[in-house]
Amino acid sequence: MLQTTSLRTLSTKIDKIINSTIESTVLLAREIEASLAEIKDVKLEHLLEPSVRKTIQDHIKQTLNSNGYCAGAGFASHIESSVSNKEFWLLEWWYKKADGVKQVNLDLDQATQQRLDFRTFEWFKQAPSVDNAFIHGPYVDYICNTSYTLTCAVPVHFQDQFLGVAAIDLLVSRVEDELLPYAANDKVILTNKERRIIFSTHPRFRVGDLLDASVTSIVFENDYFNLYM
Amino acid sequence: MITHAVIFAPIGQASRSDQIVQRLSNAIITGLLEANEQLPNEADLAKMMGVSHITIREALNTLRANNLIHTVRGRNGGSFVCEQAWELSHSLNPFKTLSTDYLSDLGEMHCAIISHSARLASRRMTNADITRLRDFVAVLAASTTPEARTQADMRCLLAIAACSQSARLANQELILQSEWSSLVAMLFRSENIHREIVDLYISLIDTLESHNEIESVNIAKKLIDTFTFYLIENKLKHNVNNNQ
Known about the structure:
Chain A is an alpha+beta fold. Chain A has helices at residues 5-37, 50-66, 110-116, 122-125, 172-179; strands at residues 72-79, 88-96, 103-106, 134-141, 147-158, 161-171, 189-192, 197-200, 218-221, 225-228. A 6-stranded antiparallel sheet of chain A has the order 3-2-1-6-5-4. Chain A has a 4-stranded antiparallel sheet with strand order 8-7-10-9, covered by helices on one side. In chain A, strand 2 and strand 3 (103-106) form a beta hairpin. Chain B is mainly α. In chain B, 71% of the residues lie in helices and 3% in strands. Chain B has 11 helices and 2 strands, in the order H-H-H-H-E-E-H-H-H-H-H-H-H. Chain B has a two-stranded antiparallel sheet with strand order 1-2. In chain B, a hairpin with a 5-residue loop joins strand 1 and strand 2 (78-81). Chain B is globular, with a radius of gyration of 18 Å. In chain B, 47% of the residues are buried. Chains A and B meet through helix 3 and strand 4 of A and helix 1, helix 3, helix 6, helix 8 and helix 9 of B. Chain B: This is GntR family lactate-responsive regulator. Chain B: InterPro entries: GntR_C, TF_FadR/GntR_C, Tscrpt_reg_HTH_GntR, WH-like_DNA-bd_sf, WH_DNA-bd_sf. Chain B: Keywords: DNA-binding, Transcription, Transcription regulation. Chain B: Residues 14-84 form the HTH gntR-type domain.
């Protein structure tokens, strides 16, 4: 793979954005797990207690504050009803407003969450089968922010069982903002592993299209994305 | 249910309690909101629909006056859909109040959104996307009640819109569904219409899978045009029945 200096700095920047997003998501997942582990005789119902929810919210807000790229972050959990507990839904989601600073809570009651059923969302569905972080998208998030989005998700476990998912949203437009300065002189196309274009400095290849790889050559790749020229 | 996410979704800029009354009463009359179902509380409705508490309160008062909902006070209180809403629905039935040109126009807008979504989707769908859409259509085919069919149909159309990878198209589809779903719920009472729609979806998926842009657009248009045709037919039938 031939790499010019500019391509090298671009790929470094791509790695930086992805790795920091993954790190933040993993950290959020671990913090939630740790907070639960601290509770004496902890049970699943503790998740709905105001003090525990506040702790989780604080972790989420802290994640939003410390990661400059992300647009939203949260934790989703659904527990089936069983002998020892009744069914419950927990979706704690916070996102940054347009100014990038003010944080808003997506506040939904149990009934609404049941109707929304985030178990059908891809980033939640795939989490239990993937051990660590995975990135879903780009996709149109018409539930939350009506923007073209990438979601990084990490499963959260409780007493060795799948409990829920910690997730971070990254706007595709934000990725473009960050990468454009590094791709000023190159015609490059960044795609996910399904060849869906996330970032492109070639007007003929649009964000959202599936790239016909036969007309380009790959110049860089990591676990999640491919960079073509 | 996703139909609820749409019914209680934010109202547009020119928000008035009339629009809310229209949307909620249509949903109640056509059965998308079921008898004895509890509505979200006033605070949640205000937040979800993006309007003030006062507007919500006004709308709920109107719905109460029309015997579509009743309110129970106290700790386990709330607003619930009335049992007899179906019988009382005659004068408030959307097919009585909406004109054919209104229905036709709604259909044309919907056709524009879905046919263009299909155009983009034919290019942009992966095999995984196709499989997901086939699963959604299978759910539609297997649904037996008008409400379940409407919900499944909505999921199919939203999926097609989302597969365009266009946030704007998907968002417009979501907004349009808030009006569309209640009307279509009436149509799905007919087995024939249900079957016809399912067949159209299956043809559409085949063209999307073969990345045939022109045919995808044609069948998508045919799908929505079919709905629009039956909506207008239903309106005309409704008026004939009333005048007898």
